[in-house]
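From the thread on structure requests for the teaching lab: each student submitted one protein with a one-line request. Submission from student K.M.:

"Model Acyl-CoA dehydrogenase from Rhodococcus xishaensis, tokens only."
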Amino acid sequence: MTMHPLDLFGIDALLDEQERDIQGTVRRLVDQRLRPRLPEWFESATLPREIARELGDLGLFGMHLHGYGCAGTNAVSYGLACLELEAGDSGLRSFVSVQGSLSMFSIYRYGSEEQKQEWLPRLATGEALGCFGLTEPDFGSNPAGMRTRARRDGSDWILDGTKMWITNGSTADVATVWAQTDDGIRGFLVPTNTTGFTANNVHGKLSMRASVTSELVLDGVRLPASAQLPEARGLGAPLSCLNEARFGIVFGALGAARDSLETAIEYAGTREVFDRPLAGYQLTQEKLADMTLELGKGMLLAIQLGRMKDRGEITPDQVSVGKLNNVREAIAIARECRTILGANGITLEYSPLRHANNLESVLTYEGTSEMHLLSIGRALTGHAAFR
Ligand code: TGC
Ligand code: FAD
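Reply posted by the TA:
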């Protein structure tokens, strides 16, 4: 008899019935409806917009938000949904992260009642798509230096600037855009059909191919005063949205790792080398055992952070611990699993290298590993070493 890696940690026993149900539902959606098409989407560098309705029907967009058509689940359930989506492909999890944790959360947390009524119900169903423009060509890790500028013209705002690497940029109906004003950084909701707004897709990606990544150009975009997010003041506003998306990644990255490990265990069990199964060799077992330890420890960390988030106790530095550790271990697991698959591991037929390539983006976005190391370093020493 063999065991599933996570059963060695008794992970299921840490979840309640509703959390297990949500996880099972998302896993079935991914396995039955999405997984068969993922290699093709990865190869053709597309993610069809139509899947938004399917994800919306399951309540996956903004699922941990309350009201406005959102499911209102706890944080652990949201994390488990991210994990199952990323067990398919990081592009799927990104799609849901950006819609729910960045676009919807920015409106939910900082928007006017009118903005919430206008956008949240449609974003929750997937009828509308949102994106979140913080990064610029020259300001990624250091968004405080952003050059995008919003200036007053009477009661209107005029936005000029360029955002870069924006997930769902060219498919979104509304962009949350962060810009410098005379009073510091502010957020704006830009309907993407506004004159002066254009989105150009990034091509030639070797990572996160089943995901749309775009440049946003704002050239004299005129917006009414009501387009400003009234409650967002300063850099802390966009950074607080990142906490939400980073939390999803703490769980999500482990989905890519779990799928890689399951694939490697199954492959090693059937692949014969030197006349017997690869799984029977000590070197293979050492790899599998070590990866199981990191996967299980990552899950324990994710659930611990999820419980703290549900109690309203989690801090940004604790999210950094989870994001740094779980993405770093997930990419190491995906790469190690690839070795077990030999040459077969370099094809789209098997998931580990696709996951590893995707995780290169996950290592970089939502704060690079170096930024999270420095955040933890600051928490430990009191010295900020960013500048
Ligand atoms: P610093 O002086 O530390 O902070 C400025 C203000 O912000 C507050 N703050 C936070 N608030 C909430 N959550 C956080 N995580 C926060 N971090 C900082 C802070 O208290 C302060 O508030 P106040 O009231 O005192 O003004 O700012 P800094 O300029 O020194 O920067 C710190 C640093 C480097 C940690 C920050 O800039 C950073 O996190 N950089 C990384 C940028 C990043 O992660 N970008 C992600 C873009 S979005 C994305 O990648 C989406 S991918 C999505 C997908 O496809 O899944
Ligand atoms: P840089 O900031 O130029 O960093 C380059 C290297 O320098 C990194 O290794 C970094 O860690 C290191 N470095 C930087 N500062 C320091 C320092 N002080 N000390 C030591 N090392 C340092 N952004 C959005 O706003 N919205 C999105 O939807 C979005 N989606 C994305 C999707 C994908 C697929 C990718 C790849 C990125 C996405 N991003 C998005 C952008 C992402 O957040 C940035 O790429 C990230 O924040 C890093 O910025 P950068 O690429 O400019 O790297």
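TA comment: Residues 98, 132-135, 140-141, 165-167, 208, 213, 361, 364-365, 368, 370-371, 386 surround flavin-adenine dinucleotide (ligand 2) (CB under 6 Å). The longest strand covers residues 156-167.
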